Amino acid sequence: MQTDDKALLAGMCRFIGIRAEHLAQLPRYAELCLARRPLLAKELYWHLLKSERESELLLQQAGCLDAAVERLLQDWEKLLRHPLDEARARQLSQAGEAYCRLGIGLDWLSGLYERVQAHLLASLAQAPLPAEASAEAARLLRKRILLDQMLKTHGYQRGIQQESASCQQHLQSISALYSTLSGVTLALADSVDRRVMLQSVCDVCVQESSFNIAWVGMLDGGELQMTALAHQGWSTPGEEMFSFVRLDAGHEANPAVRAVRSRALQVSNDVRNDPGLNGWRDGLGGLDEGSLLVAPLLARQQVIGVLALHSRRCGFFDQTRLALFDVMAREIGRALERHEALERSQRIETELDFLSRHDALTGLPNRNQMQDLIGRLLGARHGGSQVAVLAVAVEGFHDINARLGYDGGDMVLCEMARRLRDAIYPFGHVGRVGASRFMACTERVDRVQALVDAVLRQLPLPAEVMGVTVEARCSVGVAVSPAGPCDPATLLRRANLALNRAKEQGGGHCRHYDAALDEEIHRLHAMRSAFAMAVPRGELRLYFQPKINLQTNRIEGAEALVRWVRDGRFVLPGEFFPAIENSGLMRELDWWVLREAVRQASEWRSQGQSIPVSVNLSAATLKHDDFLPLLNALLESHPLPDGFLELEVLESVTQQEAEQITAKLERCRDLGLSIALDDFGTGASSLVHLQQLPFDTIKIDQRFVRLLLDMPGNEAIIRSMLSFAHYTGRKLVVEGVESRAIWQRLQEIGCHDGQGYGISPPLAAHELPGWVRDWNLCGMDVHNINPAYVS
Q: Of 188-202, 493-507, 540-554, 658-672, which range is least confident?
């Protein structure tokens, strides 16, 4: 690719806001976009059949309609499957030039892009993708299609310019007799405004060719509206010529009407005696003698106006002049088409410029513009002034979209944007920086608390959308620039950090940034980095806490619990889980625990000890594609009887995660594993999980059990869950049995299985068999429970 074309591609990519890494992601969605390929082929058939001219032109190239459609399908497959490199960009630009040379109209090409884009977006919308991934795929697809269209349009314009330049060179080589056409051509080439260009054409015709009147009328609905006029030596030109000329019945004698309908030159070399003008001659006024020519002006093969020329001389339009003015009319039409294309391109560029700096839905500044604005505010500080940034998150938006659909969700977002503007203006600026995240900045630090109060007050107010009342919570994070140097990215990061802490409080809260938040982030990062070496260095230990039947004291199994030995001390999971739970280290830890637990259970069986084990697994591990294959391989290498391995799933998994793992848990049950719902009562959708997840055991969270004797409501919860487990054939396990009194009360309630420090603390793998033997010898005596926790 030439240097200028290469720069053009780079400029278009920057303008649209798409980079190479973005383009490389689109092929991942190609199959989803092309899932309805036969239907897409039908769309292309219809688009070809709707335009007879374009259909004939493409058939001349392809040979048949099927071949033309297949060629178009291949072009769209290349767009979706192959990245846009320099060679492909050159081909697209050349294709635009080829369309221009072939005579394909830009409106047909634009219609093709609109039709196919709508189809591909509809295919994406039907694809089984998460909402965020679907939105990202749709955004990439739109930008990629827009880039493709702009490259072809650029090539098309270049083809127009080349063709126009070629015609101009040809016309300029004609003798002095063609000075009129030369002047018109110069007027067409020099004018950047359509009205100025047409006026120049009329002026040249009057000045160079002795016409006494020249005018251009442009179609406006069913009328020809005068756009440009030039005359000399004529004080009262024909009124009818220059008023609105209607195209409906009753105006057939008007040559302008005939030119529009026939798309051909209309000539009268003797206006006074021409019978074809009968019925219209009375409206000519002073134009009732001499010669008259009306030429249709065509753009994209459609009549868009007429050029009328009048000479006092009869017989003025001989064959040479007719050919001259036919060419001139065509040139004017091409110039009008070029102007229209340039105007459309300029509109697109203006829209793209706006979209590159604004959110398309709300019209608010986007993240880039907000960052630039914050940078300007920081750069303009003086006298110790500060800049405050507010990060605002509208929460619960997945539920709103699920309830109202994306159109309803967009309406809610627009309402939230309006309210946020009302709350912040005139003291600051507001932008949208994420799906349901907004950003505000202000120099009025003294007004920050008032602005936060206004946001927290106005955004959660009920909103009427699509006949439904919608309520949404919001959280706010605030960061104020320090006295020293500060860049916009740092200020934005701090505001988002404060926002995340506000959201952790449950919504409807505000949190101000302080240095402790960064310290916490650094601490978690350091913890994550250290834990990454825990498995390779052998620093993890697996402990087992026994589970017993509270009524009979029979041992039911043991729960595997991980401990990290770091620098000679034990690090409990509660310390390092927050650092790794959203990273790949959690999956690595899950598999280490699962492998060790299965290996240990298998080893105990070989020693004559039958101890079932329970293992906690995160939703991230269960969702991963390799979970079932790896589990099958593990059980093949260490076979266990049915019921000897139990997988514990946290009740706090989200609704979406529950939907993703349900089928896999069913498969685990087919393999002889049992499923437990762990820490029941701590999540936000307990009853949903009770119905949805295929579990065999409910584990009541220890926080209900520890306060059993002090809070009667806890006993009611345990009793209700005991009844639910009984009637649904599930087992109930209580955690946190840490005193004799609690144990006895659980026995009275009717609970069967339990675990806790009152029975035994977690034990090392080599200690558990001995504990089991001792328990079996004296475990029936309730006085022999762990004395450290007896009350």
A: 188-202
Q: How far is CA 612 from CA 548, 597, 609, in A?
A: 11, 10, 10
Evaluate the CA torsion angle 599, 604, 610, 614 in order and state its sign. Answer: negative
Q: How far is CA 340 from CA 157, 168, 216, 344, 554, in A?
A: 11, 19, 17, 6, 87
Residues near 764 by beta carbon (within 8 Å), at least 6 away in sequence: 541, 543, 544
Q: For the chain, count helices (H), then strands (E).
A: 29, 23
Q: What's the mean per-residue pLDDT of the chain?
A: 82
Q: Which residues, listed in sequence order, are joined to residue 764 by a DSSP beta bridge? A: 543
The whole-model pTM stands at 0.48
Under DSSP, the state recorded for 238 is -
Give the span between the Cα atoms of 159 and 153, in whole angstroms. Answer: 10
Cα–Cα distance measured from residue 263 to residue 255, given in angstroms and rounded to the nearest whole number = 11
Expressed in angstroms, the distance from the first to the final Cα of the chain is 84
How confident is residue 167, by pLDDT bands cut at 50, 70 and 90? low
378 contacts: CB under 8 Å, gap ≥ 6 = 387, 481, 486, 487, 488, 491
Query: In whole angstroms, what is the distance from residue 52 CA to residue 68 CA?
Result: 14
> What pLDDT shows up at residue 177?
42
What are the start-end ranges of the E strands in 188-264?
A: 213-220, 223-231, 245-246
What is the Cα 210 distance to its own chain's centre? 62
Whether 55 and 49 have beta carbons less than 8 Å apart is answered as yes
Q: H-type helices in 487-645, by residue range?
A: 488-504, 515-531, 573-580, 584-606, 619-623, 627-637
Residue 5: CB partners within 8 Å, gap ≥ 6? Answer: 86, 89, 90, 93
Sign of CA dihedral 376, 420, 417, 479: positive
Residue 672 backbone dihedrals phi, psi, to 5 degrees: 95, 10
Tell me the three state secondary structure of residue 137: helix
Phi, psi of 364 (to 5 degrees): -75, 160
3-class state of residue 218 by DSSP: strand
444 residue type, one letter: R
Hey, how many other C-beta atoms are within 10 angstroms of the C-beta on 156? Answer: 24
**Model pLDDT for residues 505-544, shown as the tens digit of each residue:** 777 889 888 877 767 777 778 888 888 888 888 889 999 9
Edge-first strand listing for the sheet containing 388-394: 429-432, 437-442, 388-394, 474-480, 510-512
Amino acid at 141: L
Question: Is the pLDDT confidence value at 788 over 50?
Answer: no
User: Is the pLDDT reported for residue 584 higher than 50?
Assistant: yes
Of 89, 547, 62, 146, whose CA–CA distance to 348 is shortest? 146
For residues 733 and 698, the answer to whether their CB atoms sit within 8 Å is yes
What is the average pLDDT across 663-673? 90
DSSP assignment of 135-182 equals: HHHHHHHHHHHHHHHHHHHHHHHHHHHHHHHHHHHHHHTS-GGGHHHH
Three-class DSSP category at 410: helix
Read off φ and ψ for residue 555, nearest 5 degrees: -75, 125
The answer for residues whose C-beta is within 8 angstroms of residue 582's C-beta and 6 or more apart is none
Q: What is the pLDDT of residue 4?
A: 67
Amino acid identity, residue 748? E
For residue 475, which phi and psi values (nearest 5 degrees)?
-125, 155
pLDDT of the residue at 662: 86
| DSSP element (H, E) containing 776 | helix 768-778
The stretches of 425-477 forming alpha helices (DSSP H) are: 448-458
Question: Within its chain, how far is the Cα of 458 from the centroid?
Answer: 27
Q: Do the Cβ atoms of 704 and 642 come closer than 8 Å?
A: no
**Residue 739 amino acid letter:** S
**Please, what's the largest Cα pairwise distance for the chain?**
132
